[in-house]
Specification:
This protein is α/β, with parallel strands linked by helices and about 300 residues long. It folds into two domains: about 1-125 and about 275-305, Medium-chain alcohol dehydrogenases, catalytic domain (Quinone Oxidoreductase, Chain A, domain 1), CATH 3.90.180; about 130-250, Rossmann fold (3-Layer(aba) Sandwich), CATH 3.40.50.720. About 25% of the residues lie in helices and about 30% in strands. It contains nine helices and 17 strands. The protein has helices at about 40-45, 120-125, 130-140, 160-170, 185-190, 200-205, 220-230, 260-270, 285-295; strands at about 1-5, 15-20, 30-40, 55-60, 65-75, 85-90, 95-100, 105-110, 110-115, 150, 175-180, 190-195, 210-215, 230-240, 250, 280-285, 300-305. β16, α9 and β17 (about 300-305) form a beta-alpha-beta unit. α3 packs across α4 (about 160-170). The longest helix has 14 residues, at about 130-140. It starts with a strand and ends with a strand.
Length: about 300
Amino acid sequence: MKAISYRSYGGPEVLEYGEVRDPKVGPDSVLVKVRAAAVNPVDWKCREGHLDALLEPVFPVIPGWDVAGVVERPGVAAPEFSAGDEVIGYVREDFLSRGTFAEYVAAPVRTLARKPRNLSFEEAAGLPLAGLTAYQVITKALGVKPGDVVLVHAAAGGVGSLAVQIARHLGARVIGTASEHNHDYLRELGAEPVRYGDGLVDRVRGLAPDGVDAAFDTVGGDTLKASAELLGPRGRLASITDNEVVGLGGQYCFVRPDAADLTRLSELAEQGVVTVHVDEAFPLERAADAHRRSAEGRTRGKVVVTVE
């Protein structure tokens, strides 16, 4: 099959497009014909070796954890799906090797859910990792409830935009940080936009003088410290980028595959509660350009690759 792979850590130039071995389908997996796969910051961070202490690479590595596609055939112990089913998945294993930037991927059942019928394959591919991250942080780590004031950083990005929508669905008031050209987009999602940069703390306090009930950090560093400063008396803090959050009394979160959570996200998408904005789509052979676009860090929503 055709796939993108890399034989060593490095920049986008190490990504190769060509033939690789077809995946073997384990008993608890299904073979998925890939229609689209999303790019996430973790993809190029893995490619550059930043997660080497956490995830063992088995070269050549096929990158990508997000997928939307069609079941080609189920494994012998995977009765949950049948050939022809449209699925989405956060197909992460505990090592780097068998990713989704390929014509086919063998996906464990625990990583899959049925694709939302109202989303295109490109939109659906952007839901699993970003959506699960947002859902697990908002509902579990932060325990957002009706009436909460929630601060979401990088609120126009893939994770942030979904966190805004989920928090709003739960009845929270949401303040979102973003560059000014994304403020109208945040208003459409139901958030109150705030500009990045110097004076951020004062601008947020102007909207929430008693502090925020929950803060979702997706940036780290000074942004994390500002988030801690903005918490109300019983405020909760979570970060997906900076483990210094623990020293500030918050929780560090790393998304995990969860079929039940992913099914719930699919249901929310079909109900029109959450939408996925595709910033740009690239054909599979241009995956290096897709990585470059993601690494710019100024995307609205998701960058995806498509597979013919």
